[in-house]
């Protein structure tokens, strides 16, 4: 048994890369008892994690229902324990390729939120300014009446906006996508994936022609170097980190590079930590590439055969030698050189990229440079040479694939008439109804249209923008507008739902069925384990009900949405995916049930799925096939089909370049420090679920400000003192955690809104604490992802802490400088089982 609040990653099971038997020395051979021994070779040992509710034993469990994790994108397979019609715990699935039985702390304890007494049980409508309970007919009736009035009036589809999630299921997104694109015909649809993985998609399209991760999680088993680009994987995809740590503790461990302004657990583990100034990733990347080219550490043959743009790239990076990056990023020159040495000498490099790049300055440009390193070194499409432009949310990949983020389903190109024709044929509608006269409207623009009044109906599903969007004072003003009809479909009465005209109570994970796809293209099925509370309904049923009531029809008068349950929706999606990169035609619910997850493309020709993409060095850049014709990375200007054809890609990847530019907001005399924001291991986003799981909430009950010891001393700040942060947008107050962030930078977790989700209700009379009160309305020119990671602030001390430390956890990046701060622990309530299978 282990307290997985105190011990985030559990017991180590060291292992080494697969090697031919004759190459293994006796000392390195397979050991029966992992942990104490040097470890074994080849495959990651099984360790099954389990947590059951107090008083329950395994023998009390009546059914184990298969699912996968819903609180991050790793796709860890698990079984839900059911007894007496309730969820009573979870257990990792030993046979699954992704996690081999392991679970993340959020997954072990987070399911308890399903049973919260605060779950929405009935629809709500606004009456005389207040939200009152009603029935489904009344709630849906109001939405449909307003929809028909708008659709039939002047401006029609232009008044509709849909803002969805990365947390629903594939079937739900596809249904929503068809309603939006072929029912209403609006381009104003996006997901919160815009805040999350828009840059992953954009960078993959720019370099390789379409979305889709080249790599596989098994690359961790084979690699000899791991580079983590702005990714605190130890706290945000803990099971993937366990796999990396197990390699690091086994024979022939991979080298490790971390790029992060804070002393995260990843940074502490790495051989080289580049604590860059927030907003300067691009200078570092250009310098690393400069060095690789300068030293001749690239694969000339691969570059010649499989890429376009080498000369331009050389031209751009020429001006950015390591010395220049060391100055701009404010990191030691020798560290830049050391990182380049590792990148240049590894034979099997694995990279992961996440929010430190995607939500920072020049997001797509910087993410593309990681692609460039892999292309230059020919590090794609073979074991260990892996690249993940990471996802964050559990189903963000599906939002993108199915077109619920505004892209066209099946990674089709909105600007390619042939792709529009394919969809029109599939759905049996006129091509003209499918929006394709301009790029899909991105989330920040949808909110802008609502602000200006042209979007009059905004339907938010499974997102809490009143806490998660930048510049919250503005977002609240928009959501509260009299002339905006706001529909919120959620499982709790969130900060956003409080502002709605209609609130629809949704069933969630464990209470409904559907599929989802993790970052390495592994598809899992989650089955329904228990009934939802009250009148709550699956999101799929809500969308199907809307389609029925709106009476959307195809060209021949038949219902546009002809499916009726998750499996029939999945079959409809399969037809849409056929022949595209994300081809699901070989996947069935039957295949996914029982066995482990399956990686797309999975077709009758590849019935067990596909481990890696681009194994032959042929990319999806063909003009007739690609998802996008690309952009200028500096301005965001879009290229057209003609430009793309003229480049004659012929299956080659693009090496795209851009010079470094400073962030849109830099420090000034008034705002002399940089604010960056992000996550802690215990909470998920706006905490609607994790604050309702006692073990998780108790580990991080209140917000905090991370500040470096030198800055704290200069401001006269001690651990636990109350600080005020002010940016040009707003103010927040929280207690100081003096710890290892870089000098001049403060960090605030973005999880805490103005509502306490632990039953104590809205916070009144207290100063705001949400990180997004301070962040800026500004986005990457290519991916349109907001810049959450860089804002200028002024920091002042408001009051002393009387020697009481802040409530920040001690386990992750917020590990305190002061050793006297009591360690975060979960105690008996957090005791979980971990069972290591002996070889
Ligand atoms: N525990 C937990 N896990 C989660 C989630 C969660 O809410 N909680 N959410 C999931 C989701 S949706 C996502 S998107 C992922 C996000 O996962 P991550 O990207 O790992 O998480 P973040 O904390 O947002 O950001 C990562 C790091 O970026 C660093 N950073 C800030 N500015 C810069 C910069 O300019 N350059 C560089 N190189 N680094 C910078 C921060 O210090 C931070 O440590 O996590 C997923 N997993
Ligand atoms: N400052 C700052 N801001 C950020 C970030 C950052 O790093 N810094 N990160 C950004 C990123 S990467 C992300 S992903 C976003 C996340 O931002 P949000 O999407 O706003 O965050 P969540 O709290 O996950 O909101 C999901 C909502 O869906 C509800 N929900 C859960 N399951 C279901 C379901 O099955 N059906 C329905 N209908 N509802 C459900 C939950 O109760 C919750 O209210 O925040 C972004 N904002
Ligand atoms: Mo995210």
TrEMBL record:
Keywords: 4Fe-4S, Iron, Iron-sulfur, Metal-binding, Molybdenum, Nitrate assimilation, Oxidoreductase. Residues 391-401 have a biased composition (Polar residues). Residues 807-831 have a biased composition (Low complexity). CDD domains: MopB_CT_Nitrate-R-NapA-like. Residues 62-118 form the 4Fe-4S Mo/W bis-MGD-type domain. Gene3D superfamilies: 2.40.40.20, 3.40.50.740, ADC-like domains, Dimethylsulfoxide Reductase, domain 2. Residues 15-41, 391-410, 801-839 are annotated as: Disordered. SUPFAM superfamilies: ADC-like, Formate dehydrogenase/DMSO reductase, domains 1-3. InterPro entries: Asp_de-COase-like_dom_sf, CT_Nitrate-R-NapA-like, MoPterin_dinucl-bd_dom, Mopterin_OxRdtase, Mopterin_OxRdtase_4Fe-4S_dom, Mopterin_OxRdtase_prok_CS, Prok_molybdopt-oxidoreductase. Pfam families: Molybdopterin (PF00384), Molydop_binding (PF01568). GO terms for biological process: nitrate assimilation. Its cofactor is [4Fe-4S] cluster; Mo-bis(molybdopterin guanine dinucleotide). One of its GO terms (molecular function) is oxidoreductase activity. Belongs to the prokaryotic molybdopterin-containing oxidoreductase family. NasA/NapA/NarB subfamily. This is Nitrate reductase catalytic subunit.
């Amino acid at each position: 048994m282990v307290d997985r609040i105190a011990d985030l990653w559990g017991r180590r099971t060291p292992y080494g890369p697969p090697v031919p038997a004759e190459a293994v020395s006796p000392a390195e051979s397979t050991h029966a008892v992992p942990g104490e021994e040097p470890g074994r070779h080849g495959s990651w040992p099984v360790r099954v994690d389990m947590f059951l509710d107090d008083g329950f034993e395994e023998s009390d469990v009546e059914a184990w229902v298969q699912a996968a994790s819903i609180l991050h994108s790793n796709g860890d397979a698990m079984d839900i324990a059911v007894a007496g019609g309730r969820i009573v715990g979870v257990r990792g699935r030993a046979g699954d390729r992704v996690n081999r039985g392991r679970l993340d702390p959020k997954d072990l304890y987070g399911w308890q939120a399903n049973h919260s007494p605060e779950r929405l049980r009935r629809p709500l409508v606004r009456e005389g300014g207040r939200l009152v309970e009603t029935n489904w007919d009344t709630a849906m009736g109001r939405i449909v009446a307003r929809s028909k009035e708008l659709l039939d009036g002047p401006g029609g589809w232009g008044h509709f906006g849909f803002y969805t999630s990365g947390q629903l299921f594939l079937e739900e997104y596809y249904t929503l996508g068809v309603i939006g694109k072929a029912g209403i015909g609006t381009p104003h649809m996006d997901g919160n994936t815009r805040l999350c993985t828009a840059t992953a998609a954009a960078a993959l399209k720019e370099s390789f022609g379409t979305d889709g991760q080249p790599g596989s999680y098994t690359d961790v088993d084979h690699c000899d170097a791991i580079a983590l680009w702005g990714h605190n994987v130890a706290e945000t995809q803990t099971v993937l980190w366990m796999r990396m740590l197990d390699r690091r503790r086994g024979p022939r461990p991979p080298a490790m590079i971390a790029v992060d302004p804070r002393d995260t657990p990843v940074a502490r583990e790495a051989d080289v930590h580049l604590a860059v100034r927030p907003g300067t990733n691009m200078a570092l990347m250009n310098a690393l590439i400069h060095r690789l080219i300068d030293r001749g550490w690239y694969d000339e043959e691969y570059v010649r055969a499989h890429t376009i743009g080498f000369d331009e790239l050389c031209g751009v990076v020429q001006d950015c030698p390591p010395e220049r990056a060391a100055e701009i990023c404010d990191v030691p020159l020798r560290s830049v050189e050391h990182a380049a040495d590792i990148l240049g000498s590894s034979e099997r490099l694995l990279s992961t990229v996440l929010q430190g790049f995607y939500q920072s300055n020049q997001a797509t440009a910087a993410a593309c440079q990681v692609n460039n390193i892999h292309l230059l070194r020919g590090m794609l499409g073979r074991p260990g040479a892996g690249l993940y432009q990471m996802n964050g949310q559990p189903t963000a990949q599906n939002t993108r694939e199915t077109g619920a983020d505004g892209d066209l389903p099946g990674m089709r190109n909105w600007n390619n008439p042939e792709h529009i024709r394919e969809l029109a044929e599939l759905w049996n509608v006129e091509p003209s109804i499918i929006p394709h006269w301009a790029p899909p409207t991105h989330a920040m623009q949808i909110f802008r249209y609502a602000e200006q009044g042209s979007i009059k109906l905004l339907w938010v599903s499974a997102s809490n923008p009143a806490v998660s969007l930048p510049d919250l004072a503005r977002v609240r003003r928009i959501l509260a507008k009299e002339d905006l009809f706001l529909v919120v479909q959620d499982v709790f009465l969130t900060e956003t739902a409080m502002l709605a005209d209609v609130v629809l109570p949704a069933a969630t994970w464990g209470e409904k069925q559907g599929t989802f796809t993790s970052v390495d293209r592994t598809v899992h099925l989650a089955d329904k384990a228990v009934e939802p509370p009250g009148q709550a309904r699956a999101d799929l049923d809500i969308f199907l009900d809307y389609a029925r009531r709106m009476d959307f029809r195809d060209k021949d008068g038949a219902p546009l949405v002809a499916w009726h349950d998750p499996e029939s929706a999945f079959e409809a999606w399969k037809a849409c995916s056929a022949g595209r990169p994300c081809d699901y035609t070989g996947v069935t619910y039957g295949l996914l049930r029982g066995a482990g997850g399956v990686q797309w493309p999975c077709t009758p020709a590849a019935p067990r799925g596909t481990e890696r993409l681009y194994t032959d060095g042929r990319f999806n850049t063909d003009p007739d096939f690609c998802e996008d014709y690309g952009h200028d990375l500096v301005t965001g200007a879009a290229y057209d089909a003609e430009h793309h054809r003229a480049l004659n890609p012929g299956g080659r990847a693009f090496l795209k370049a851009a010079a470094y530019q400073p962030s849109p907001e830099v420090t000034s005399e008034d705002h002399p420090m940089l604010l960056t924001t992000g996550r802690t291991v215990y909470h998920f986003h706006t905490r609607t679920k994790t604050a309702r799981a006692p073990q998780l909430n108790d580990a991080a009950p209140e917000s905090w400000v991370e500040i470096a010891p030198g800055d704290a001393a200069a401001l006269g700040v001690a651990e636990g003192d109350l600080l005020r942060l002010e940016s040009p947008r707003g103010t927040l107050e929280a207690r100081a955690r003096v710890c290892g962030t870089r000098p001049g930078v403060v960090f605030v977790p973005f999880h805490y809104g103005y509502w306490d989700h632990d039953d104590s209700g809205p916070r009144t009379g207290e100063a705001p604490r949400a990180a997004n009160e301070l962040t800026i309305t500004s986005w990457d020119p290519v991916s349109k992802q907001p810049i959450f990671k860089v804002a200028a602030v002024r920091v002042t001390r408001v009051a002393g802490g009387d020697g009481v430390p802040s409530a920040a956890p001690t386990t992750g990046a917020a590990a305190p400088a002061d050793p006297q701060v009591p360690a975060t622990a979960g105690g008996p309530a957090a005791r979980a089982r971990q069972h290591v299978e002996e070889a």
